[in-house]
Amino acid sequence: MTTPTRPPDDARCPCGSGDTYGACCGRFLAGGAAAPTAEALMRSRYTAFATGDAAYLRSTWHRSTRPARLDLDDGVVWRRLDVLRTQAGGPFDDTGVVEFVARHRGADGPGLLHERSRFVREGGRWLYVDGDVG
Residues near 27 by Cβ (< 8 Å), separated by ≥ 6? Predict the structure, then answer.
């Protein structure tokens, strides 16, 4: 397992929000706060993929669908995230959907992941359940 490579707090956040890492996803990955919305959790999970933080990904995955083990491919570089649409997933909702496109580059060249992800909020924490890739 690789050690996550977190950016400095004053660097731009990998999720593309325009905020700094420390003010955006960094606080969630560090464990100091929980994502307040499904979109914020999805952005932080993208950042976890981009920084190689498998532990954060597993901790934010719903127990009903969480894999027993998660090995990230060190050869994949995540380049860009575009959030296309959200449905519910706000601070007062219990479920939410976030549709996004994530671009990456790996050994086989450039690629993209287009997913419609489902989230639930349990005990005040948003969790990733699953997604439809398309």
Answer: 33
- Name which of 80, 117, 121, 112 is nearest 98 in CA terms: 117
Question: CA-to-CA distance for 51 and 45, rounded, in angstroms?
Answer: 10
> Residue 94 in contact with residue 120, Cβ under 8 Å?
yes
Q: What is the pTM of this model?
A: 0.95
How many angstroms separate the Cα of 71 from the Cα of each of 49, 103, 110? 11, 19, 20
**Cα dihedral 16, 105, 53, 98 sign:** positive
Under the banding of pLDDT at 50, 70 and 90, the label for residue 52 is very high
Contacts (Cβ under 8 Å, ≥6 apart) of 56:
4, 28, 29, 44, 45, 48
pLDDT for res 69: 93
**Amino acid, res. 72:** L
Write the CA distances from 16 to 50, 57, 59, 82, integer angstroms: 12, 18, 22, 8
